[in-house]
Amino acid sequence: MTLPAGPGTAQPAPAAPPPVVTRHLAVPHGRIAYDDTGGSGPLVLAIPGMGDLRSEYRALRPLLWRAGYRVVTMDIRGHGDTSVAWDDYSARAVGHDALALIEHLGAGPAVILGNSFAAGSALWAAHEEPALVRGVVLLGPVVRDGQPPWWARAAVAVGFAGPWRTAFWLAFWDRLFPLRKPVDHAQARAALAANLREPGRMAALRTMVGLSKADTEAIVAHSRVPALVVMGTRDPDFPDPVAEARWLGVQLGTAPILVDGAGHYPHLEVPQHVAPALLAFLGRTAPLP
Q1: Which of these, 68, 77, 79, lies nearest to 28 by C-alpha position?
Q2: How many Å apart are CA 100 and CA 108, to the nearest integer?
Q3: CA–CA separation, 120 vs 141, rounded Å?
Q4: Contact 70/3 with Cβ under 8 angstroms?
Q5: pLDDT tens-place string over residues 122-166
Q6: Residue 174, Ramachandran bin (φ over 0: left; ψ between -120 and 50: alpha; else beta)
Q7: Which CATH code for domain 2-285?
Q8: Beta strands 227-232 and 257-259: pairing type?
Q9: What digits encode the pLDDT tens for the residues 31-75?
């Protein structure tokens, strides 16, 4: 299914959930930061991609909360308010963190949302503890290794090599919104820049960028939980994002949702188009009481 993006600029999010205090969960080797809307609705755990913060779900979070869901957003290892130094930055390790958080909250099973690299984390969590995962929503999913040309690999090496590395990443990040940037993009960009300038943050990101996803690709076809795949048709992370979405849909036994003209963050560029498909999926996998 292809969703038209429609004309106009990005829409502001609806009224925000009640203010929450950022909490931390201690796990082996570090602490995971998370925000929790609370409530008694089914649990939705949202995981951002590498090089971004839990605030990337700021448009979906109020929509899901207003629909009756308990929404938890977490920062991944090395990012945001989560601790910096870890012995493992893989998608599988982040999946373990997600499972630890679900168990800590005592509100599972959960539907896990994962963007980009964290789509693999959602799949790993479901693979290892299916009883704790009702379903997975994969947004701009990066679950297997690409084959970038030599010049792209060289550009990444140079980009992370010097004091310009934060500016390099932010320039790349800006390109991930080809359709339109959210109305609060400048504020989000400033917050991301400030976080990445903290000691150790860029080193953690560089480690993640260099990790192979072969282990994640190996489990994709074995997934047995309901899945929703959402891909922008102009996602610059893929030579052919439509083909990638269709490949993943075949592996998971689901028809992907293609958002016409959107990039790596369809849930931020056009949340008003992504949210209905997401809420329909939640209605099937995590129905409200």
Answers
A1: 77
A2: 11
A3: 7
A4: no
A5: 999 999 999 999 999 999 999 999 876 656 677 777 777 888 799
A6: alpha
A7: 3.40.50.1820
A8: parallel
A9: 999 999 998 899 999 999 999 999 999 999 999 999 999 999 999
H or E segment and range at residue 173: helix 165-174
Residues in Cβ contact with 263 at an 8 Å cutoff, skipping those fewer than 6 apart:
140, 175, 176, 177, 178, 179, 232, 234, 235, 236, 269
Do residues 106 and 41 touch, judged by C-beta distance below 8 A?
no
CA atoms within 13 A on the CB side of 9: 7
Alpha carbon dihedral 96, 102, 105, 111, in 10-degree steps, equals 150
CA torsion through residues 88, 94, 99, 104, sign: positive
In order, the DSSP letters of 3-63 are E---SSPPPPP-SPPPP---EEEEETTEEEEEEE--SSSPEEEEEPPTT--GGGGTTHHHH
- Give the Å distances, CA to CA, from 89 to 86, 94, 207, 251: 7, 7, 7, 25
